Amino acid sequence: MKLIGSAASPYVRKVRVVMAEKRLDYQFIVEDVWAPDTAISTSNPLGKVPCLVMEGGEAMFDSRVIVEYLDTLSPVGKLIPQQGRERAEVKTWEALADGVMDAGVLWRLEATWTGRADDERSQAWMDRQRGKVVAGIAAMAKGLGDKPFCSGIHLSLSDIAVGCALGWIDLRFPEIEWRAEHPKLVKLMDKLMLRPSFADTRP
């Protein structure tokens, strides 16, 4: 398998962490989707990463779709429950983490996209997205509570998604001091960074 992506993308990192935890072999192909000569559209018509290309050449995209598929490939380290409320809980955690990243990406694009002049940028829009990021992180802290992991006592996709989101916020928005406000999230993040899957994919 080939994984097309960016080392800084939190969505790509989520897939890479899952692949490491599942002990799956793959080739990582770095692609800048913003470059004029990007070839991502040959694999993903939406022009986004991550994109997983199978042995036969067919492509799979969207990190949520990819990680769910990867979790079925090996019984090692099951990350997503098969059914019921437990499965819905893990997928909800993933949706929360992805929502934080989605808002952060929209905020960053509004602030930095070179196709827009400074006087064309909307501070109200950026403030709205920042509010979503902050609220999402607070919801993560509340949901984690005193549990060792987001969805109980074992590592799951919930923790991987949250860890990737928080790592990206640290990278792109260091002014958001979530560590000072949410020590239990800090404890979780420190625990995740001890795992090679997280340490080796740090952006």
UniProtKB/TrEMBL annotation:
<dbReference type="InterPro" id="IPR004045">
    <property type="entry name" value="Glutathione_S-Trfase_N"/>
</dbReference>
<dbReference type="InterPro" id="IPR040079">
    <property type="entry name" value="Glutathione_S-Trfase"/>
</dbReference>
<dbReference type="InterPro" id="IPR036282">
    <property type="entry name" value="Glutathione-S-Trfase_C_sf"/>
</dbReference>
<dbReference type="GO" id="GO:0004364">
    <property type="term" value="F:glutathione transferase activity"/>
</dbReference>
<protein>
    <submittedName>
        <fullName>Glutathione S-transferase</fullName>
        <ecNumber>2.5.1.18</ecNumber>
    </submittedName>
</protein>
<dbReference type="InterPro" id="IPR050983">
    <property type="entry name" value="GST_Omega/HSP26"/>
</dbReference>
<feature type="domain" description="GST N-terminal">
    <location>
        <begin position="1"/>
        <end position="78"/>
    </location>
</feature>
<keyword id="KW-0808">Transferase</keyword>
<dbReference type="Pfam" id="PF13410">
    <property type="entry name" value="GST_C_2"/>
</dbReference>
<dbReference type="InterPro" id="IPR036249">
    <property type="entry name" value="Thioredoxin-like_sf"/>
</dbReference>
<feature type="domain" description="GST C-terminal">
    <location>
        <begin position="83"/>
        <end position="203"/>
    </location>
</feature>
<dbReference type="InterPro" id="IPR010987">
    <property type="entry name" value="Glutathione-S-Trfase_C-like"/>
</dbReference>
<dbReference type="Pfam" id="PF13417">
    <property type="entry name" value="GST_N_3"/>
</dbReference>
